Amino acid sequence: MVSQVLMSSSLEYYANPSSTHMMGLEIEQLINEARISISNLLGVNSSELIFTSGATESNNLAIFGVIRALQNNNRRLHVITTKIEHPSVIRCIEFLNDQGVDVTYLPVDCNGMVNIESLKEAIKENTALVSIMQVNNETGAIQPIEDIGNLLKNYPHIYFHVDGVQGFGKIAISLEYVDLYTISAHKIGGPKGMGLLMKKGHVNISPIMFGGNQEFGIRPGTTNITGVLSMQEAIKIAVNQQEERLNSLTMIYKRVYSVLHNIDGLHINSPSPGLGSPHILNFSYTATSSAIFLSILAKKGIIASSQSACSSKGSKESRVLMAICNDQAIASSSIRLSFHESITDEDIDRLIEALEQTVILIKTKKVFSFLADKSLEEQNIYS
Ligand code: PLP
Fold first, then answer.
1. CA angle, 9 as apex, 3 and 12 as ends, to 5°?
2. Where is the Aminotransferase class V domain (predicted)?
3. Is 310 part of the annotated catalytic residue set?
4. Does the beta carbon of 224 sit less than 6 angstroms from any atom of ligand 1?
């Protein structure tokens, strides 16, 4: 279990793995073994894994690393991405754009999917990097990574980066045609503040932080032994149980989807069952804002969100949904349910009841009296 590895390793392994004393060497050996075991699970070489502090860092390292390594010869470079990437990708690319790198933001269709033809048309002679996520974190849309990889095989000068944070462990992926792949440990039951970047041997990147020689001189800093060992355990479980997890999540998704589908005035922003990742179900009920819908759900004991945690503060409407449907009412009333495979039939019953009651409260204009009443409802929920 991840929590056991987390506890025992933080108690036992306190030496610095870069130290040359016996305890340091022992820990370095554990890190080497973890690297080999993770690389076997991912089907890559152990020298192709860089441990990082999470997906934000991995995405920054992939994007800035590739561009900085190529910028040495002063050639103007071009990057292709989509309009619906996570902020940890979009913000890097916006920054590069400000610094003189050309950028194409590919549009997506009403299912949130990129069109291969539009990618093909966007490719230029100076395109250096294509960065496209595996699964969208707001809607669960799955991108055709294999088709994109196959297309990019014809352009050996272009590196293909995939943010796999929401897909890894849920949706199968072959890393055969992917040059750089980002994983975050906490999205697969591992610890927060831990991740990795898979970087194929032929890809040159420059470091974006400077210091020690850890992680092949690309990512300095004392290696997080507790994080590495716990992430190794989480990856092992995620890979071994992927199919089982997908089946359980699909059943949950189908049940909730069919209820939402029948609610008048409710717009489902996620793909139909079987077309998207079944752990994210996003909908909009335009009669009220996301904030009010979420407050009612919270009072009923259901914790959901509206956008990604990295964009939710300070932004009223979802940038991702605007790119998908270009409808402000939908983009500012979105609710994002995320499911864990362990949730029970009773949990789903409770969720469905809460969703139906929330819609009734909104329709009957009883929201404010409900939210103001702190007596009975809250006691029932939290007792
Ligand atoms: N990419 C995607 C698609 C995400 O959903 C997230 C986090 O939710 C990240 C990147 C950032 O991950 P981390 O929290 O490990 O930095």
1. 140
2. 2-351
3. yes
4. no
Backbone angles phi, psi at 237, to 5 degrees: -65, -45
Q: Are residues 126 and 269 in the same domain?
A: no
CATH of the domain at 78: 3.40.640.10
Whether residue 183 lies inside any domain: the answer is yes
- Strands 78-82 and 127-131, how do they pair? parallel
Taking the CA of residue 54 as reference, the ligand 1 atom at the shortest distance is: 15
Same domain, 200 and 318: no
Domain residues for 365? 242-378
Q: Which residue has the tokens 């979009």?
A: 90
State the pLDDT confidence band at 383, using cuts at 50, 70 and 90: very low
Do residue 45 and residue 79 come from a single domain? yes
State whether the beta carbon of 92 lies less than 6 angstroms from ligand 1: no
Give tens-digit pLDDT for 323-351: 999 999 999 999 999 999 999 999 999 99
**Tens of pLDDT, residues 182-229:** 999 999 999 999 999 999 999 999 999 999 999 999 999 999 999 999
DSSP 352-373: HHHHHHHHHHHHTT-HHHHHH-
The residue whose two tokens read 């933080």 is 10
- The answer to whether residues 227 and 281 belong to one domain is no
pTM of the full structure:
0.93
Q: Are residues 236 and 252 in the same domain?
A: no
192 and 341 share a domain? Answer: no
Q: Is the torsion defined by CA of 45, 200, 167, 62 positive or negative?
A: positive
> What distance in Å separates the CA atoms of residue 259 and residue 247, rounded to the nearest whole number?
19
- Do 215 and 298 lie in a common domain? no
Ligand 1 geometric centre to CA of 87 (Å): 8
Note whether 51 and 174 are same-domain residues.
Answer: yes
Q: CA-to-CA distance for 356 and 344, rounded, in angstroms?
A: 19
Cβ–ligand 1 contact at 336 (below 6 Å): no
Spatial CB neighbours of 141, under 8 Å, sequence gap ≥ 6: 84, 108, 111, 112, 113, 135, 270, 271, 276, 277, 324
Protein residue whose Cα sits closest to atom 9 of ligand 1: 55
